[in-house]
Amino acid sequence: MVEAPQTAEGWFVLHDFRTVDWDAWRDAPERRREAALAEGVDYLERYERVEDADDGDSAVFSILGHKADLLVMHLRPTLEGLDVAERQFERTAFAEFTDRTTSYVSVTEVSGYVSQAYFEEGEAADAGLQRYIEGKLKPSLPDDCYVSFYPMSKRRGETYNWYDLDFDERADLMAEHGDTGRKYGGKVQQIIASSVGFDDWEWGVTIFSEEATTLKDIIYEMRFDEGSALYGEFGAFYVGRRFPPADLPAFMAGNEVPVPAGASPHGAAGHAHGEGPHGEGSDQPDADEETDDVRDELRSLDIYGGQPHGEDVYALVLYSTADPEELADEVYGLRSNFEHYDSHVKTAVYSGADDERSAVVSIWTTQRAADTAAGFLADLPDVVERAGEEDGFGTMGMFYTVKPEHRAEFVEKFETVGGLLAEMEGHDETSLLANREDENDMFIASQWRSKEDAMAFFRSEAFSDTVDWGRDVLADRPRHVFVA
Predict the structure, then answer these.
(1) Which of 150, 238, 319, 341 is flagged as catalytic?
(2) Half-sphere exposure (CA, 13 Å, Cβ side) for 104?
(3) Least confident segment among 31-35, 38-42, 131-135, 414-418
C-alpha cells in the first residue's frame, strides 16, 4: 500500500476575487459612492487589524486582467471566521458595486515531505524547526508586495500518477522542488494551503515578492523540476499588488495603488475620512521621516548610518531575561533555518558580564525578510522588550570587532564612556554585550528617550575622543550602525 505523508494544518484561507461594476459606479450619485467607500475602507481596515478574531491576517490586492479587479484575502484560525468575514463584506454598501468572479477555500498545511522529524518527535523536535513549521501554518502577509495565486493538483493519469509513487520517490521529487525554491530565499514568500475536500483543486498556492518579475522567474524555473514537469497540473493564475485599505478611493478613481509617496492618496473621488492620515491640517511627524533625519545627522557627523536601519540592512533587536545558554540554543536552532535565505546577514545572542539580560540581534537585507523573522523571534522565551516598541526613540546599535589583544582595554574604555553617558540628559541605558560565540564581536546597545537626546551623544567630545582612540584597538569600523 502506498504510504500517505502525515500533514499538519494551521489557518484557514479564503481568496475572494471580485470584479467592479464600473457602469453602476459611474452612474451612482456622489453621496452613494462616498458612503460605499467609507464602508469599504472601514471593513478592510477592521479585518486587517483582525478585530474579529484572536489571530489571523487579511489584505486587499488590486488584480490585473479581465478575471478580477480585487482580491480580498483572509486567514483565520477557523472556517467559521472565514464565513463571517465573507458575509460581513456582503453587508457593506461597497459590495453592492462588486460581483464575485470566483473564490478559493483552503487551509495552510505542512507535510512529512518538509520534515519527518516534526511529526516523529512532536514537542521534542528542534525548537528552530518547530518555529519554522509554525511560520508555515500561521503565516503573515507581507505589506508592500506583488502577489500571484493559482490552484494546482498532482496528476493522476494513466502514465504519470503521483499517488502511485512510493513515499521516498515523492519525497525526493519534493526535495528537488524545495531546492529550487530556496534559491529565491529572501525574495519570495509563499503560502501553501491544502484544498482537498474544500475546493476544486488540491492546493492553493499564493506567492509574494517585492518584484513582479520574480514571481514569473520562480514559477518558470520550478516548471523544470520533475515533480512539476511530470506530475503538476495548474489552474488559472491571478496577479496583482497589495494596497492599504485607505487607498481604496484612489483605486476606484483609477489612480496608482499603493499610492506613491508624496502623491495625493485621495484620487478624483475624494477621501471618505478627511484630507490627511490624521485629519485635515495634521502636523504629526512621520516616523520614517524622523528615522531619515537621524541617518542624515549621523552622516553629517561622519558616522555611517546605513539605509534604512543599518548598513543596507534591517536590524531586529530583542531582549530576553531567559537563561543565556537556553536562549542561545533556541536562537541557533532558528538561525539554521534563517541561513537558507540569501537575505540573512547574521543572527546572534549577545550577553553582558552579569548575564541578567541578553540581546538577540538579527540582521537582514530586506524589510520583508526581517518582518517574517520577527514573527519567529518574538516567541523566544522571556522576551522583555523589543527595541523600538517601547516608549521613546529606541535602540541606537553599533557593532565592533575588537582586536583580541585590546579587548580588555576596550571594555575598560567603555566603562569610562558609560559613566559619561549616565550623566547625559535623556539617556536610559547603554550596555556593552559580547557575542556568545565570539567574545571579540561586541555590540553596544544604547537606549534614549528621544532622537535629540541620542544625537547629543554623537555630537559630544567624549564620543569623538572614543572614535579616535578606537582606530587603534578595533579590527574594523563599525559594521552596522542602526536605529531599531
Answers:
(1) 150
(2) 28
(3) 414-418
7-243, what's its fold? Alpha-Beta Plaits (3.30.70)
The residues of the chain that CATH labels 3.30.70.100 are: 288-483
- Give residue 306's pLDDT: 42
Q: Tell me, which fold does domain 288-483 have in CATH?
A: Alpha-Beta Plaits (3.30.70)
**Confidence (pLDDT) at 280:** 36
As a whole number of angstroms, the distance between CA 426 and CA 252 comes to 47
pLDDT digits (tens, 9 = 90+) for 152-171: 999 999 999 999 999 889 98
| DSSP H helical ranges for 6-126 | 22-27, 30-48, 79-90, 116-121
Whole-number Å distance between alpha carbons of 362 and 349: 9
**Catalytic annotation on 150?**
yes
CA terminus-to-terminus distance, the chain: 55
- Cβ-based neighbours of 1, under 8 Å, separated by 6 or more: none
| All CATH 3.30.70.1030 domain ranges in the chain, comma separated | 7-243
| Distances from the Cα of 91 to the Cα of 40, 85, 123, 124, angstroms | 10, 10, 43, 47
Nearest in space to 60 (alpha carbons), one of 77, 81, 36, 42: 42
Res 305 pLDDT > 60 = no
- For cell 494551521, the residue is 10
